[in-house]
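no rush on this but wanted to send it before i forget. what follows is a protein written twice so to speak, once as letters and once as structure tokens for the fold. mainly i need to know what kind of three dimensional shape the backbone takes. thanks a lot i owe you, the record is right below.
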Amino acid sequence: MATKPSAFAVHLFTGTGAVFALLAMLGAADRNWLSMFLWLGVGLIVDGIDGPLARKVDIKKNAANWDGSLLDLVIDYLTYVFIPAFALYYSGLLPGAMGMFAVFMMTLTSVVYFADTRMKAKDNSFVGFPAVWHMPLLVLFVFQPAHWVTLVVVVALSLGQFTSLKFIHPVRTVRWRRFNLPVMFFWFLLAAWSVAVDMQPPGAVEAALLVSSLWLLVAGIVMQIIPERNEGSSAA
């Protein structure tokens, strides 16, 4: 079947994520963290919009010569793994050998995770930590913890990719979505505030950022612990 321009345009729209990833990398290279997180945020918006657009134009049927899932994975690796690893090393959060070990862990474990065909559960949650390193990186930038704390966080999340623990997709995981999705939006507002004030937000914003981050991290695990009731209200 011939490729429809509207469907191919969605592929191009998805592909702009690579451009925004490059701009984020240039910001990181200059240690301009505001620029880096700004472009990562723009890329995240593209990532959130392109899926519904692809389904609307039936992209698998009308632009079948290009694999949208593969395109997503390439861009996601750049945006969520490679650039955060680069930024972690050059930010000074983990100096020297510790920093090199941490970024090796991030990049190696994440590229293997991205190739794992079991990374998505039936409920659209992720199985294992989904390698969204830009989120813990921002929290680490705000709190500037001791080096050993940062190293423990990186190692724990890296190894967490190879577990059966679930991590929610705030949009696509239906269970508790009415709560988790607003928490996700709230987190983005707090993150934007933190970036805008050079990673030195007020104490209340710091606390809210930490609490919302921890909830988004453990929500899927809590769901595994608490059995789902066979009721229509369980989708809430």
About this structure: The two ends are 40 Å apart (CA to CA). Strands lie at 126-127, 166-167. The chain is about 70% helix and 0% strand.
